[in-house]
Amino acid sequence: MRRSLPRRWACLVLGGALLMPYMMVGVLISATLRGEAANLMLPAQVGVFAAVLPVVAVTGLFLPVRGLEVSAAQGLLGAHVEVPPRTERRAWQERRRTAAWFTLHLAVGGVVSGFTLAIVPFTMFTLALPFLGWPTPVLGFVITPGWNAVPWALAGMALLGALVAVAAGAGALLARLAPVLLGPTPGERLAAAEEHARSLAERNRLARELHDSVGHALSVVTLQAAAAGRVLDRDPDTARTALSAIEQSARAALEDLDHVLGVLREGAGDRAPQATLDDLGELVAASGARVRQEVGDLSGVPAVVSREAYRILQEALTNAIRHGRGPVYLIAGVRDGELRLEVTNPGRRDGDREVTGGRGVTGMRERVRLLRGDLEAGPAEAGWRVAVRLPLRSSP
Q1: From CA 302, how far away is CA 293, in angstroms rounded?
Q2: Torsion angle in degrees (nearest 10) through CA of 99, 102, 108, 113
Q3: DSSP string, 312-363
Q4: SS3 of 289, please?
Q5: Cα dist from 243 to 229, 234, 240, 348, whole Å
Q6: 38 pLDDT more than 70
Q7: pLDDT in the model for residue 270
Q8: What is the number of alpha carbons within 13 Å of residue 391 lying toward its C-beta?
Q9: Burial (CB count within 10 angstroms: exposed 0-12, middle 13-18, buried 19+), residue 360
Q10: DSSP category for residue 85
Q11: pLDDT above 80 (res 315)
Q12: What's this model's pTM, rounded to 2 decimal places?
């Protein structure tokens, strides 16, 4: 309390200083209405003080004083005020709270500042009375030097102690009310929670994309590197083809990684466009696998569906390459207002486990569910099959 009292007292004096222009205008208007000369030394005028407080409240409704008051509350009062989120438009709930705090700060600060200006000089004067060499009039009394002035000195000290107590209590009151009136309103907290939820959803989406892209690239690199190592001596052309597939997959993975890091980095500038079904040919070429395609006209697929469909096919190809054998059959086309995707491979290697609960299949299900589509992923007569239906238009 002792350490915080000077700063809290300074905050109260700041409130009194902010109240001064209102009081000066109030004194001028009061003197004009009475036909008297205005005394801008601001004597104690309770009527003027009470009259300007509604004006202070209206000012707090419209002027952007919240940032100043939050800084004062944190730096001078030592209050733990949660910094409110920035919004383009001020809600009336926030305006009312700010106006209430602004009025309270200036009213309490004005009273404490007025008493400070009056009591501190009075106390210093009474302490000097016993040592003066001549009688001195004080409040209608003539005080002679010596012991007769000691009670006045004690009274001045008592008034100073009372002022300290009032300042400490007023500072503690403002410090307690600051988080309530200056902190985020329920509407602001809800908006912040929604923004946090959107951020988490975006991060989850990026995590799925990174998993699909990097997982696909690592699968291609692993299998193609092993194939290149086996045929390097007897079939250099096949080895070069495998190495080319490794290069393309690694380059695509680096581009996707750069895109994700750019999104996560604060203040990122232009971001590379996300891959869509238009890049399906590059995806198949980079996989290095034997893929037999049956692709229809996909030009009418909406962008968001096209992006998610690309990632679904990428993960399906990854699973087919990792756990299948032989050529991969890929079908993509539009029928009855839906995008139909199907990826099958003729069987799994002996000893390979079925991938029914991995993150890849889970990621595909999440994407399909967000687009209100259907996904079938599991063993079939032909081996492993992934079939997806995605509506091109949202429906209630």
Answers
A1: 21
A2: -150
A3: HHHHHHHHHHHHB-S-EEEEEEEETTEEEEEEEES-B-TTPPP-SSSHHHHH
A4: coil
A5: 10, 15, 5, 24
A6: no
A7: 46
A8: 9
A9: buried
A10: P
A11: yes
A12: 0.55
